[in-house]
Write a structure and sequence with these properties.
Elements: E1 5-11, E2 15-21, H1 23-28, E3 36-40, H2 46-52, E4 56-62, E5 67-75, H3 79-90, E6 100-109, E7 113-122, E8 138-144, H4 145-152, E9 162-168, E10 171-178, E11 181-189, H5 195-208, H6 210-215, E12 218-222, E13 239-241, H7 247-256
Parallel strand pairs: 1-4, 4-8, 9-12, 12-13
Antiparallel strand pairs: 1-2, 2-3, 5-7, 6-7, 9-10, 10-11
């Protein structure tokens, strides 16, 4: 039986980067292992992409999508019932949940109720996987870049309540974390950024989630050195600039651990 090849996909609203890889070669090499093909969603070559992902093991990282976060309280039920109960609950918050994917994390429970943190993704960026069963596609892992960055830097973050800001592929991501969970986030797509614009965006985010800002102990910045931002003092909070992560290392992390 022929083994399936592995492919890593970076998926955004405009383009898809498909990277075929061998796990053995990827883990044994510290230099560039990326040989990628880019497909743009408004061009005909996307048809070629749909052919290329046939018979593949897919690892997917979704970029440029805001995560909608809800704290949901449900009656204590068996695990197999939780998905449908969350789906029914989300109908009260969002009119259209047909194109919504979600996952959840249990925060606490007692003998009667359970509190769940629900992470929702709206959009159709993954419609490329339509008919995945017929195309013999195996989904090994799907991750949002927000969680990938947060988890990657977890051993360098020494606070439970904090703000993480990072830059990747022309997007700036703002994450508000409380008890080490993402409770709010925002994304700004911008090719060129000066100090004044960044300060405005940062302050808007802090003011929008002011209650969480008051609890925050520190602001962490990652992958922002190329933005040439010199002033990073906001809300009288201490800050720390984390080492930049190379793209190859981030993809390795997401495939192996993320």
């Amino acid at each position: 039986m022929k083994l399936k090849k592995n492919m890593f996909l970076e998926v955004s609203d405009k383009r898809i980067c498909g990277i075929e890889f061998s796990k053995h070669k990827m883990l044994s090499r510290t230099i560039n292992f990326i040989e990628e093909t880019k497909y743009y969603k408004d061009r005909l070559d996307l048809k070629d992409f749909k052919v290329d992902i046939k018979n593949k093991n897919l690892y997917i990282m979704v970029e440029g999508e805001t995560v909608y976060i809800k704290m949901v309280t449900l009656p204590l039920v068996k695990k197999h019932q939780i998905h449908d109960m969350i789906k029914n609950e989300l109908k009260y918050y969002y009119k259209d949940i047909e194109n919504m994917a979600f996952t959840y994390k249990s925060i606490k429970e007692d003998k009667i109720n359970m509190e769940l943190l629900v992470f929702c993704l709206k959009g159709s960026n993954l419609d490329i996987l339509e008919n995945s069963i017929e195309n013999n596609i195996t989904l090994r892992k799907i991750n949002l870049i927000q969680f990938c960055f947060k988890n990657y830097y977890s051993n360098k973050i020494n606070a439970n309540n904090y703000i993480l800001v990072f830059y990747y592929n022309s997007n700036i991501y703002f994450l508000m974390c409380c008890n080490n969970e993402i409770v709010a986030n925002n994304i700004v797509n911008i090719e060129e950024l000066d100090q004044f614009e960044f300060a405005m965006l940062m302050n808007e985010f802090l003011e929008q989630y002011n209650d969480y800002t008051k609890l925050s102990e520190k602001i962490y910045y990652a992958n922002i050195k190329k933005l040439n931002i010199s002033e990073l003092e906001y809300a009288a909070l201490p800050y720390q600039i984390l080492d930049d992560v190379m793209r190859e290392e981030l993809l390795k992390y997401m495939i192996v651990k993320g």
